[in-house]
Amino acid sequence: MKIKDLVQKEVRDLSCYEVKTILGQKSQEKIVKMNLNENFAMPTETIQKLLLDACRSIDVRAYPPPRGSLAAKAISCFLGFSESEVSVANGADEILDMLMKVFVRKGSKVIVVEPSFPMYTFFAQLYGGSAVPVLLRPDFGLDVDAILNKVDKDTRLLFVCSPNNPTGNQFREADIKRLLQEFKGVVVVDEAYVDFDQLGEKI
After folding, report:
1. Can you list the domains of the chain with their CATH numbers?
2. Distance of CA 40 to CAs 25, 33, 34, 43, 175, Å?
3. What integer pLDDT is reported at residue 171 of this predicted model?
């Protein structure tokens, strides 16, 4: 028997997630690279100093506090939430992975507003679910009626990326609120790029 025959079908059927680089264009155009949520606002030297200071302040031989409790406490104080309302992870992909593990099972449906971040579909398929795409309107706005019309008894999650990757626009607050009120499942509003947004309606 070959090893690949032991791999779950959902994993075998997945396509690799590839990130196309724009670095080759930077010499011809004024491009600010933000497609991987990098922070080029801070100088490299500043970040290196922060990392060194952090390394000097901890005992690297010991396990860190479980579930990122120190970070969760700091975030909850900063935002004014209870610590029980804050989850931290090693990047947004781990949060997506945890959401899918909790809510998606074989046969579950996940609504994904398209075009958008491909990892929503990737993780849905990884755990035996299926991604149900709903296209944006021609003006890149949310088609709320079309989203709600796709919901059935197997629908578990709805992903809305705002500001959206790759269109860059934030969605109307009224549309988000309507989805929160009428969608019978878990609405995930991914605001990974919200700090870059200087235009549009804040959610």
Report:
1. 44-193 (3.40.640.10)
2. 17, 8, 8, 7, 32
3. 95
- Strand (E) positions, the chain? 109-114, 130-135, 155-161, 186-190
> Of 143, 167, 157, 174, which is closest to residue 112 (Cα–Cα)?
157
Contacts of 152 by beta carbon, 8 Å cutoff, 6+ apart: 109
All residue ranges of the chain with pLDDT < 70 are 17-35, 37, 197-203
Structure tokens at 87: 């989850």
Instruction: Report the C-alpha gap between 124 and 102 in whole angstroms.
Output: 11
Report the alpha-carbon distance of residue 88 to residue 94 in Å, rounded: 9
Given a contact cutoff of 8 angstroms between Cβ atoms, the answer to whether 139 and 169 are in contact is no
- The CA-atom distances, in angstroms, between 185 and each of 103, 151, 156 are 10, 9, 5
DSSP string, 71-97: HHHHHHHHHT--GGG----SSHHHHHH
- In this prediction the pTM is 0.79
- What are the angstrom distances between the C-alpha of 63 and each of 32, 67, 117? 37, 11, 33
Q: Which two tokens stand for residue 144?
A: 């709320």
Sheet holding 155-161, edge to edge: 130-135, 109-114, 155-161, 186-190
